[in-house]
Amino acid sequence: MDKRQEGSIEYSFDRGVFLLLLGLCAFGLAVVGFFFWYVPTVGLGNIHPVLPYVLGAAIIAVCAVVFWGAIGVALSLISGHSISPSSRYRGFLVKLFLPVMVLFGGLFKIPRIKIERAFVEINNRMVRAMVAGGRRFSPEKIIILMPHCIQWEDCKVKVTKDVANCVGCGRCEIGELLTLADEYGIKLFVLTGGTIARRKLYEYRPDAVVAVACERDLTSGVQDAYPLPVLAVINKRPHGYCMNTGVDIVAIKGAIEELLGRGGRPARAVIS
Q1: What is the DSSP string of 31-63?
Q2: Where are the domains of the chain?
Q3: Neighbours of 262 (CB within 10 A)
Q4: Which residue from 103, 234, 212 is spatially nearest to 148, judged by alpha carbons?
Q5: Which among 12, 1, 3 has a CA at the least distance from the CA of 270?
Q6: pLDDT exceeds 90 at position 11
Q7: Which residue in 128, 169, 234, 250 is deepest, having the highest Cβ count within 10 Å?
Q8: In the chain, how long is the greatest CA-to-CA distance?
Q9: Residue 85: pLDDT above 60?
Q10: Of residues 68 and 249, which shows the higher confidence score?
Q11: C-alpha 31, offset from chain centre
Q12: What is the pLDDT of residue 208?
C-alpha cells in the first residue's frame, strides 16, 4: 500500500448532527424573534395600536424566510441533491446557518469537525445542483487551489511560487495534479495560506474553484469565496494535519468534470 494512504479511513459525515443543529438554529431564531416582538409590544402599543402587529408581521416574515431556507437545506441533505439550482440556499447555509450551528455545537459539546464535514458535503451538493440546473464553466475560468502541505516535507523544490517547478518525482501528488491541470487547461496553485488564496481569487477572477484542504480551512474558504461556487475536497492525512497530506486525484478529476458539465464522480475524499 502506498505510504500516503496508510491509516486512511473512508470519508463520512454525520447527517443527524447537522440536521439537529439546523433545527436548533431555525427554532432559536424564531424564539429570539418572538421576544423581539413580545417585549416591546407594550411600548409600541402606546405609540399606536397597530405598530405591534406591524412588527409582528415583519418578524413572522423573517422567520418564514429562515424556515424556508432551513427546509431547503435539510431536504438537500436528506435527498442527496439540492431541490433548487438557486444559489440562495447556499447563501442561507454559508452566511446564516453555519455560524449559528457552530455556536450551538459549542454549547452542546458537538465536535466542530462534524459540522464542518457536513457543511462541505452539502455545499458540494448545492454546487452540483447549479451545474445540473444548466450552469456551465469553461476551463480557463476554473482554478484549482491546493495547500502547501501536500508537498513532500523534504522536497527542496519551491512550488508555491510556480507549481511548474515540480519535477514530478512521485513522492507527492503535485506532479499528477499538474498533469491533470494541463490536460484540462486549468490553472493550478499551491498555496501557503488563506490570504494567498484570496489574492489568487482576486487576481484571476475565476467563475468556479476546486479546493483541497482540511475541514476547517475548506469551511472558512467557502465562506470567504461566496458566492463563488467551490467544489471542496477534504485532504488525506495519513501523517496528521499539515504534514505530507494527500489528495484523491480521481476526486479532483471528477470535480473538474462536474464543473464542465460532463458528469464525473462526486467530489469526496479519504481522510485520516
Answers
A1: HHHHHHHHTTHHHHHHH-TTHHHHHHHHHHHHH
A2: 15-130, 137-260
A3: 11
A4: 212
A5: 12
A6: no
A7: 234
A8: 78
A9: no
A10: 249
A11: 28
A12: 95
More confident residue, 150 or 38: 150
Contacts 24+ apart (CB under 8 A), 178-185: 180/249, 180/252, 180/253, 180/256, 181/144, 184/139, 184/142, 184/256, 184/260, 185/139, 185/140
Q: How far apart are CA 230 and CA 71, in angstroms?
A: 22
- The CB-side HSE value for 239 (13 A sphere, CA atoms) comes to 14
Nine cell digits for residue 191: 498555496
| Cell output for 14 | 454525520
Cis peptide upstream of residue 111 (ω within 30 degrees of 0): no
Contact 180, 139 (CB under 8 A): no
- Predicted structure pTM score: 0.74
Q: Report pLDDT for 84.
A: 54
For residue 88, the one-letter residue type is R
Q: Are 94 and 226 in contact (CB under 8 A)?
A: yes
Separation of CA 121 from chain center:
7
- Most confident listed range (23-27, 69-73, 144-148, 157-161): 144-148
What are the cell numbers at 235?
Answer: 485532504
Please report the pLDDT score of residue 178 as a whole number: 94
Q: Contact 111/17 with Cβ under 8 angstroms?
A: no
CATH topology of domain 137-260: Rossmann fold (3.40.50)
Q: Where does the pLDDT of residue 119 fall: very low under 50, low under 70, confident under 90, or very high at 90 and above?
A: confident
